[in-house]
Amino acid sequence: MPDPNTQPPALSAATTTALPGASQAAPTAATLTTVPAINPSGGVKADTGPRDLAIGGGVWLVLVIAFFFAKTGYANMLVGKRVAPRSANASGWWLFILLTSLATGGVLAVVDQERFLAPIYIAGFVGVALLALILMLMTGRR
């Protein structure tokens, strides 16, 4: 940011006439020293574009694929510890839901912070994650 104590350079008459739609009058000191309004929330509100959504969707898809492999590995580990295969598979699916819920909340929060960091969204993702955690631990017992 420029130093607020310094004055911006004055525009010459040749510069102002070269601009399309510029008037012939020289700029005044009041027009040269106006400062744009500062947003009290600390930033400029930017709209979420399709590029941001595509990148977020791609990251989410890669995470879901990785979580699927983690689910399979977790279920196989439980079977190796003498847990019934049906219970191990169910526990693996609950792990998948837990991780996917957390990843969805995280990706949405990064893509559009103003909209998806609202308590209603965070509470939903955390609620699903906690329920999945409890069910994963209960079904993964011997």
TrEMBL record:
The keyword Transmembrane helix applies. The chain crosses the membrane at residues 53-70, 91-110, 116-138. Keywords: Membrane, Signal, Transmembrane, Transmembrane helix. Residues 1-25 form the signal peptide. This is Uncharacterized protein. It comes from Candidatus Thiodictyon syntrophicum.
